[in-house]
Every structure is written in C-alpha cells, then in structure tokens.
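In line with agreed milestones, the collection of sequences with tokenised folds has grown. One record among many is set out beneath this paragraph:
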Amino acid sequence: MNDDFIFDDETKGIFKKSVVEKKQGRPAKKETQKRKKNVSTYLTDEEYTAFLEFLDGRTMSTYLRKIIIEKMNSKS
C-alpha cells in the first residue's frame, strides 16, 4: 500500500468546492401568495365516479378552486 495518499486532519477541507453553488428550484412564493387552508367534502361512490368523469383529466383541486372563486366573485 502506498502511503502517499493518506489524508489526515491537516488536509481536511482542502478539496471542498471553492465556488458557491446556485440554489436550485423555483423561487419561494411570497407569504401572501401561499395557499395554506384546506377544504374537503365527502361524496358517495356514485358522486365521486361521476365527478371524475366530469373532470376529464383536469385536477380536482384546480377545478374546485376555480369554481369557489367564481362563486365568491359573483356574490359581489
């Protein structure tokens, strides 16, 4: 075994990256833009199946949020 490549405490950290890496991912949302509250309901099996067919590939949460906001705005 060749002892030329033995690392001790004196060499710790020498090979760390000297360049700061960029943070990956999308930027964080502002506190006022974060959605924190959850709304739920119960459906029968038949209602749920009909609702899934009605959605036709759209996400439940997006569709329901759109409907809720539309109904709130129409009351104004």
Q: What stands out?
A: The mean pLDDT is 83. Residues 60-74 form the longest helix (15 residues).
